[in-house]
Recover the amino acids of this structure.
């Protein structure tokens, strides 16, 4: 299903690169396009991500972002990171040179560079630019905007396919996705169809980002409980998920579109649990875990109690999305509600 969006602006750990490859393998809208196309996208995703690692400021949250946007006939990968003013024209000139080179010649340049760097024990960033230009069909876009303290923000955007949008529209959409995430103090933002495999990738990304944070296991438990509740959807569930970090701490929101009956059942169960005293709620949770949530109702009760118990402050909003569908949305943490 086209429409998947993924935006990230966190610690940019190297380990996340492997999960980006896995993510490209499991995006629902890309599955019919074949393995070769998904490998091409995986390369562009990883190289764009690594470009941020090479140039980011580790002490400034929101200075960089990585994006993937599936539009059906077109997929876009964008990277935003700081750049010094004098480097802008150098990069612009290099991109113009590469765009004038035939694809076969670009591949030769890349392979020659690999051989040279192996001999010298190096891995130059210029090689990634050559291969990104080739694999994006020489449609690599560059744009800059003023940043803090006299530096600039650089946007590099690669795409596969063509949905008819102009380059100016592509660039503005990428900047808007970046600025929306920064305004929300966001670390992750995902929206799209997510089956079990992609849910696993998202869970591992959360593990990597919060592996040294005491709240990490509690947020992971809440996320897994949410995914379990979402399996009441017909087919692959459409979810939205966001992780944020502010001076108040970590917060998370997640939403799934469900048929009316399971959505209403979740709302009724939540209301009943919210009316219980904390000690009574905790005892109910332990009884379900000990007995084993074998029945669907017991399983959903365990998931709801996990959300209530594991992540502190948590709110639920159920709203109509159509005649037969409702959105179930949980907000967790300091910004709950």
């Amino acid at each position: 299903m086209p429409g998947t969006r993924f935006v990230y602006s966190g610690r940019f750990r190297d380990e996340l690169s492997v999960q980006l490859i896995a993510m490209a393998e499991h995006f629902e809208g890309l599955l019919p396009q074949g393995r070769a196309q998904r490998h091409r996208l995986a390369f562009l995703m990883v190289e764009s991500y690594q470009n941020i690692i090479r140039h980011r400021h580790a002490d400034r949250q929101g200075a960089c972002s990585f994006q993937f946007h599936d539009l059906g006939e077109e997929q876009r990968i964008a990277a935003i990171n700081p750049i010094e003013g004098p480097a802008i024209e150098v990069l612009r000139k290099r991109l113009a040179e590469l765009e004038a080179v035939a694809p076969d010649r670009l591949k030769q340049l890349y392979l020659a560079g690999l051989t040279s760097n192996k001999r010298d024990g190096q891995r130059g960033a210029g090689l990634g630019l050559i291969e990104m230009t080739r694999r994006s069909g020489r449609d690599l876009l560059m744009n800059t905007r003023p940043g803090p303290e006299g530096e600039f923000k650089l946007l590099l955007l690669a795409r596969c396919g063509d949905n008819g949008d102009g380059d100016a529209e592509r660039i503005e959409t990428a900047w808007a996705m970046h600025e929306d995430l920064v305004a929300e103090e966001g670390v992750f933002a995902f929206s799209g169809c997510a089956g079990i495999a992609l849910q696993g990738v998202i869970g591992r990304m959360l593990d990597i980002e919060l592996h040294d944070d005491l709240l990490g296991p509690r947020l992971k438990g809440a996320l897994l409980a949410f995914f379990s509740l979402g399996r009441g959807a017909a087919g692959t569930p459409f979810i939205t998920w966001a992780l944020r970090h502010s001076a108040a701490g970590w917060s998370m929101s997640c939403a799934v579109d469900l048929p009316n009956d399971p959505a209403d059942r979740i709302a009724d169960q939540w209301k009943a649990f919210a009316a219980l005293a904390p000690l009574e709620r905790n005892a109910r949770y332990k009884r379900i875990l000990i007995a084993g949530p074998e029945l669907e109702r017991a399983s959903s009760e365990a998931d709801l109690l996990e959300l209530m118990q594991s992540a502190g402050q948590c709110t639920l909003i159920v709203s109509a999305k159509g005649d037969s569908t409702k959105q179930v949305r949980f907000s967790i943490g300091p910004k709950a509600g």
Q: What stands out?
A: The CA atoms of residues 241 and 254 lie 4 Å apart. The chain has two domains: 5-183, 198-337. Residues 198-337 form a domain with the Heat Shock Protein 90 fold (CATH 3.30.565).
